[in-house]
Specification:
Layout: E1 2-8, E2 13-16, E3 19-21, E4 29-38, E5 43-51, E6 57-66, E7 71-78, E8 83-92, E9 98-107, E10 112-121, E11 127-136, E12 141-150, E13 158-167, E14 173-182, E15 194-199
Parallel strand pairs: 1-4, 2-5, 3-5, 4-6, 5-7, 6-8, 7-9, 8-10, 9-11, 10-12, 11-13, 12-14, 13-15
């Protein structure tokens, strides 16, 4: 397993573009893990592109703790691999943080892509957006599991989640499991997750 830890200091802007591409017909497994601690007022962007061979198994994990006034953006694009699982666990630790977690999948044949996101609003005054979209053909399957946690003292949290799937085959499958965990008190202007599926078959 590849594992890395990164610390982004105050007023730092950083970006990363991991890219995986391999030939079809080769069986292999890749496990990656990134642990981020992002300092005050930093801006971080990550774009992950997965174009592995059709026999590959890939598990990717990102954990991040965000401090005050951080701008954090993550986008994952999956078009390869037999089974791909992307896991993101992000915690907003200080007010003023803006978080955007997005992903897109183009799948066919018997490909399987699984995205799991947990966004923890540990304090108030933070904004998060989670958007996942997929286009499915053949017997492919896309799974999205998203959870938003709003702690009891996280006043004025703004969290939204959206998942869209376009199925080009009657045998394609899109599964969504939204979760919203809200503290026992406080005034929270939250919006319920939205999930849409459409078929052209």
């Amino acid at each position: 397993m590849r594992r890395s830890r990164a610390l982004s200091r105050p007023l730092v802007a950083s970006s990363a573009v991991p890219f995986w591409v391999d030939s079809d017909g080769v069986d292999y497994q890749v496990n990656t893990a990134i642990n981020l601690a992002v300092g005050d007022a930093a801006k971080v962007e990550r774009i992950m592109i997965g174009a592995q061979g059709r026999s590959a198994l890939h598990v990717s994990t990102l954990t991040a703790a965000l401090r005050r006034a951080v701008d954090f953006r993550d986008f994952g694009f999956t078009t390869g691999g037999a089974v791909v699982r992307n896991q993101l666990f992000v915690r907003c630790d200080s007010p003023g943080t803006t978080l955007g977690l997005c992903g897109a999948s183009l799948l066919t044949a018997r490909q399987h892509a699984d995205t799991t996101m947990v966004v923890d609003h540990a304090v108030g005054g933070c904004r998060s957006r989670e958007v996942i979209k997929s286009v499915l053909d053949g017997q492919s399957r896309n799974v999205f599991q998203g959870k938003i946690i709003v702690r009891p003292d996280a006043q004025k949290s703004d969290a939204r989640m959206l998942s869209n799937a376009l199925m080009l085959s009657a045998d394609a499958e899109a599964d969504n499991k939204p979760e919203l965990e809200i503290g026992s008190h406080g005034e929270l202007p939250l919006f319920l997750p939205q999930f849409h599926s459409a078929s052209l078959n």
